[in-house]
Amino acid sequence: MTGMTTNGRRPLLNRRLTEFGTTIFAEMSALALSTDSINLGQGFPDTDGPEEIREAAVRALRDGRGNQYPPGPGVPELRTAIAAHQKHHYGLSYDPDREVLVTAGATEAIAASLLALVEPGDEVIALEPYYDSYAAGIAMAGGIRVPVTLRPHEGRFRLDLDELRDAVTDNTRLLLLNTPHNPTGTVLSREELGEIAKLAVERDLLVVTDEVYEHLVFDDAEHVPLAGFPGMRERTVTIGSAGKTFSFTGWKVGWITSTPDLVTAVRSAKQFLTYVASGPFQYAVAQALALPDTYFEAFRADLRAKRDLLAAGLTAAGFEVFRPAGTYFVTTDIRPLGESDGFAFCRALPERAGVVAIPNAVFYDHREEGAPFVRFAFCKRTEVLEAAARRLRAAR
Fold first, then answer.
1. What's the rounded Cα separation, in Å, for the pair 306 and 220?
2. Within 10 Å of residue 14's Cβ, how many Cβ atoms?
3. For the CA atoms of 69, 75, 78, 83, what is the dihedral angle to 10 degrees?
4. Is 6 a residue whose pLDDT tops 60?
5. 3-class secondary structure, 209
6. Nearest of 284, 337, 383 to residue 75 by alpha carbon
7. Which ranges in the chain belong to alpha helices (H)?
8. How far is CA 139 from CA 220, 260, 326, 365, 376, in A?
9. Are 209 and 192 in contact (CB under 8 A)?
10. Rounded CA separation 362/369 (Å)
11. What is the pLDDT of residues 169-192, one digit of tens each?
């Protein structure tokens, strides 16, 4: 389809999008169905979130709250809840009327931020490997993608701060950061974030931070919002989402918090994307954000146990496992299995083992850097993870 022309004229698809075809997630999910495999590829839970929050959405539907267009910035109850969440968990104060914007999930928040803040020719630095919508969003804005690669070192993927500094040029407009980081599971430390903040201030850069996995950090890791560092509040757009924290990914409720000027800029782009979305669900998410700390603690504990279960199974099956400090993904190295091509490995794995995974190379500009790495999702029921681990061990 991308090569089709009309009457011999140029291709139908905007040339900025020609590198983006069908996503690997669609391909792997189709393979899972055709082979009756366990799908540990796409990152969505196989159970719903809290029943009381689902019932809150039902009540909103029945009460007629959100069934028509909600306010453009989001319903006041949700904006107030987002501001309260940022204050309670991180000590960051935001005005719910001027410094919070509700979006159709984090994906729209990312796209709207890039469309609003990036002009053709602007350079945007992103940590590689990156969530696939980053590349598409930068391309649609006409920006130039500049990847800085996270590389494995002593059991985790690490950022080279010198490489990041060297990547900044006079054309750099924006840093696009993701921590906790999908797909590697790395959580940038307070010290690393402090150095990034100093760089952003020194070079007068805008920063968009994707923090959708903020409540999924394990062991000694901590999530520290970049906006809290000196000089960063006025230059940072922070992105959050209900889908990952409350296991309602289909509701598509995300948000940004920032200064009035940055929120106004992002809203100017966002209003011509979805305009508004997810009306009744916004009221339910407002209630979810006010859940007690015990909810978030139990949520982390459950995912930590599932991480450990899958990591042990993958290790027993012969993979080198990078135990994640955050998110609900495990990255593995397939070279101990005598493999080096993640694409070929993942396409063969459903027939060989009855399990689906994602080749990390799709998240890289430098495909060779990601070639031997494969990602598995552990946001599934315990019995599903146990079955996957058995299948992988048996196929060794």
1. 17
2. 11
3. 140
4. no
5. strand
6. 284
7. 24-35, 51-62, 76-90, 105-117, 132-141, 161-167, 190-202, 242-246, 260-270, 279-289, 293-316, 342-353, 367-370, 382-394
8. 37, 26, 28, 13, 27
9. no
10. 11
11. 999 999 999 999 999 999 999 999
Angle, CA of 28, 106 and 285, to the nearest 5°: 110
DSSP helix/strand/coil, 376: strand
Is the pTM above the cut of 0.85?
yes
In the chain, the amino acid numbered 205 is: L
Task: Tokens for 375, please give them.
Answer: 């990602």
- Rounded distance between C-alpha atoms, residue 303 and residue 305, angstroms: 5
Task: Give the H/E segment covering residue 16.
Answer: none
pLDDT in tens, 241-288: 999 999 999 999 999 999 999 999 999 999 999 999 999 999 999 999
Find the farthest-apart pair of alpha carbons in the chain and give their distance in angstroms, rounded. 62
**For residues 330 and 321, is the Cβ–Cβ distance under 8 A?**
yes
The tokens for 325 are 């400090």
> Rounded CA gap, 351 and 346, in Å?
10
Q: Map residue 215 onto helix, strand or coil.
A: coil
pLDDT for position 211: 98
Burial class of 59 by CB neighbour count within 10 A (0 to 12, 13 to 18, 19+): middle
Query: Cα(first)–Cα(last) distance of the chain, in Å?
Result: 39
